[in-house]
Design a protein that fits this description.
The structure is a single chain. The chain has 4 helices and 6 strands. Helix 1 packs parallel to helix 3. The longest helix has 13 residues.
Length: 126
């Protein structure tokens, strides 16, 4: 069961990434591109995800994932319930979303520095 605390540090540590609050909602950006956003209650996480793969993700596990609002279907975006995700899985989605908005050289540098992925998160030991 993932929570905001599982991905909060990761979003701040990824190169060029920074947190912002918009209408009381936490979002992570690279430049002006939002790649992860949380609901006001921090129970939902929306993240960048390829449009062409979105239907398969949502259809494969509709209890975890859902399509964005109709007005947001034009964007590379999907929504999820954080509690339905494992902490490591949530962290992987954050990193994959970040990869969509950074240059390839940053993505490759991350892979070299973290060959086993982002890891389970800070709450994994508790």
């Amino acid at each position: 069961m993932a929570a905001l605390e599982d991905v909060l540090d990761l979003g701040s540590e990824l190169e060029r990434s920074y947190p912002v609050y918009v209408r009381n909602r936490l979002k992570f950006r690279v430049g002006q591109l939002v790649y992860v956003a949380f609901s006001a209650d921090n129970l939902q996480m929306g993240f960048a995800f390829p449009k062409e793969e979105r239907a398969a993700l949502v259809g494969g596990d509709p209890k975890k994932f859902r399509m964005p609002a109709p007005s947001d279907l034009r964007f590379n975006w999907v929504e999820s319930d954080l509690a339905a995700l494992d902490p490591g899985e949530a962290r992987e989605f954050v990193v994959d979303a970040w990869r969509m908005v950074v240059p390839l050289k940053l993505s490759r540098a991350y892979d070299l520095a973290h060959p086993h992925g982002p890891g389970p998160g800070p709450r994994a030991g508790s």
